[in-house]
Structure formats: structure tokens, C-alpha cells
Amino acid sequence: MTQRELAAASNITEPSISLYLNGKKLPSIPVLFRLAEALGVTPADLLDLGTGTATTANPQRAQQLVRKLGAQLSELRQSLGSAS
To answer: Which CATH class is domain 3-83?
Structure first.
């Protein structure tokens, strides 16, 4: 899945997708849900909430999660690209 395809599937602008992938912007909760739905996963899957870390109390952890989200989206995009 390309950034353009993810943007279309989630109704989020392609520049915003790029900002999330590069860790330059945090997605809002509604955006996180739309990304998860477009990718066929849960928001918790995207954030790896099994860690039990409260991101609202730890901005650095939130940035780490956004970078992880970007990495997961990139991996998904690569795997979907190689599958087609």
C-alpha cells in the first residue's frame, strides 16, 4: 500500500500521512482509528499498547510510538507491494 493509497483509504491527506510516517506530527485519536481501519488492524495494534505506557504523560514515548507506527506502515506497504 502506498502513502497515496493509504491516504485515499483513510480519507487523510497524503501530506499528513507523510508527517505521521516521518514522526513529525502525532495523529489525533479519530485519525488513528481511520488509519487502523484502512490497514485492517486495531488502533492498539498500531500503537503497540501492550507496553502499558501512558503516552499522554510521556511525550517522548508518544514520539517513539509515532515512529513505530511509521515503521509498521512502511513494512506493511512493502509487504503489500511485493504481494501484488
So the answer is: mainly alpha
